[in-house]
């Protein structure tokens, strides 16, 4: 035993001696000639679903050809590979720039390039009076159109591939072609990979939208692999382990939830020699696509609302709407949670003689308008909250004759005087009630045919109270670039009266929806949100995974009004839809779901996108009417709130303008219709599941 152990140790010591002494230098050189390089490869983004689990945004796989540049790869090596690859695939040349062509020409016309430099300039270069960079710039500047015209289509195709090779970073896969890669191209390149160093065939992905055109402006865009990281945010993304050619969200939901949707990249360790050739590769971490988003949006409702807008907008154009009428918006919220149920906007455009309805859902948060009488609920409550009015107090509605100002009156009372209370003022949309409320807040006193002097601090006071409803401030929605509207310049007392009836400051359609939701739910301003849940992805399935995070309702503030004061305004809104003289009675009194609404019209000078065209021609801007509507239902237990905004709808009068009311009635009808339909479907599913369980139970008993 001793002899055997002695012999084994002797063999081991002898072998170690050979490795360390005889072959040590060889092994040391082998170690020194290899490097470990870790790279990340992209993965598909997370999917986007609606609240019912319907896929809204998906990833579509597609064939791709990539190139991974080794460290120290020379121009000649890459050019040889590009020439070989150009013979196997068709590469578009539309992205090739003039500078690309000049660089390519210089690379392939060395003698002609040298001839672009004079002997005197070469002498300066040799004497270090001209740098190599300056010399190269002189060559670039002296390349003529005639020189570039010598480049053939085949050479341009090689150039298009070569520029893709050089666009990426060493050891990082760069997409050469991922659009229109045919099966033949994919196969022939795969067969020739051995002679195409750095080239590989793989599967890439692209975003696919299940509902063409719907919500596209809100869903946002992602950058292409060619664009990579936005220039203005390169450092931000690089500090978060992004590569420069990574695709990222550029706008709205894709941008807002980039960290959620981006996924976990595949981490690969490449072992290379000193020349940069890859000796071996090892996957350190498998990639996983990004988490999925579940929106608050009901796509069935969204599509139906968009169709209603298109129909009504088209009819309004045909039946004498203003020539400048070109858009309409609808926002629908759950007033109790702030969930956005539908965010619809359409823009009417004529392109090449053909009328089109384009998606403009984004306009609900990025455009603002004077909204008219819909804001009178905020004015009435501001009167309560400032203490200038009391519940049920009567105010005389009469034409106001202020010196130096045209007579101001309510539309239903042009000449007489009548006592009205707060609810009647809302039901019939009294301007004078609101005027006199503003005068009290401004510490003024109305005297017929005399000037009106008000404390201009009243503007700040009223705006501060209006902001409690979300008017004139950001709503807090989980989307970037939300606008807050424009505040008019508080220059005269009379403008405060215009402010009180919604004809001074501008608001967004979303602000209106938040405002009416605050009244509907009893005074809580809820933060609107368009994402409901974040879910884990499930591989190779269209199903929704487990919840990672559920977005909880958030109260931004509570009105400084008492429950009884809010109830007065709620009843006033109910009377607009169902009262004997309600301004929207004609449209809503037959609704079984018992709505509460407030109509609005705002007359003013056109301030839309074609304004500059009028000014350039020296023409006077036309007067237009914006028509609006806010509401909720049912009035005693609200589950949906909404705003309808149609700017520049009519030119001469809005008295017979039904588009806002038509849209409002139809979207509420559709909401409750879909609710009933889904309830029946859920009941049917429960019955079917119960029937299956009973049959399985009976079968088990029979077998026993």
UniProtKB/TrEMBL annotation:
<dbReference type="GO" id="GO:0005886">
    <property type="term" value="C:plasma membrane"/>
</dbReference>
<comment type="similarity">
    <text>Belongs to the transpeptidase family.</text>
</comment>
<comment type="pathway">
    <text>Cell wall biogenesis; peptidoglycan biosynthesis.</text>
</comment>
<dbReference type="GO" id="GO:0071972">
    <property type="term" value="F:peptidoglycan L,D-transpeptidase activity"/>
</dbReference>
<dbReference type="Pfam" id="PF00905">
    <property type="entry name" value="Transpeptidase"/>
</dbReference>
<dbReference type="GO" id="GO:0009252">
    <property type="term" value="P:peptidoglycan biosynthetic process"/>
</dbReference>
<dbReference type="InterPro" id="IPR001460">
    <property type="entry name" value="PCN-bd_Tpept"/>
</dbReference>
<keyword id="KW-0133">Cell shape</keyword>
<dbReference type="GO" id="GO:0071555">
    <property type="term" value="P:cell wall organization"/>
</dbReference>
<feature type="domain" description="Penicillin-binding protein transpeptidase">
    <location>
        <begin position="329"/>
        <end position="668"/>
    </location>
</feature>
<keyword id="KW-0961">Cell wall biogenesis/degradation</keyword>
<dbReference type="GO" id="GO:0009002">
    <property type="term" value="F:serine-type D-Ala-D-Ala carboxypeptidase activity"/>
</dbReference>
<protein>
    <recommendedName>
        <fullName>serine-type D-Ala-D-Ala carboxypeptidase</fullName>
        <ecNumber>3.4.16.4</ecNumber>
    </recommendedName>
</protein>
<dbReference type="GO" id="GO:0008658">
    <property type="term" value="F:penicillin binding"/>
</dbReference>
<keyword id="KW-1003">Cell membrane</keyword>
<dbReference type="InterPro" id="IPR050515">
    <property type="entry name" value="Beta-lactam/transpept"/>
</dbReference>
<dbReference type="GO" id="GO:0008360">
    <property type="term" value="P:regulation of cell shape"/>
</dbReference>
<keyword id="KW-0573">Peptidoglycan synthesis</keyword>
<dbReference type="InterPro" id="IPR012338">
    <property type="entry name" value="Beta-lactam/transpept-like"/>
</dbReference>
<keyword id="KW-1133">Transmembrane helix</keyword>
<keyword id="KW-0472">Membrane</keyword>
<dbReference type="InterPro" id="IPR036138">
    <property type="entry name" value="PBP_dimer_sf"/>
</dbReference>
<feature type="domain" description="Penicillin-binding protein dimerisation">
    <location>
        <begin position="42"/>
        <end position="280"/>
    </location>
</feature>
<keyword id="KW-0812">Transmembrane</keyword>
<dbReference type="Pfam" id="PF03717">
    <property type="entry name" value="PBP_dimer"/>
</dbReference>
<dbReference type="InterPro" id="IPR005311">
    <property type="entry name" value="PBP_dimer"/>
</dbReference>
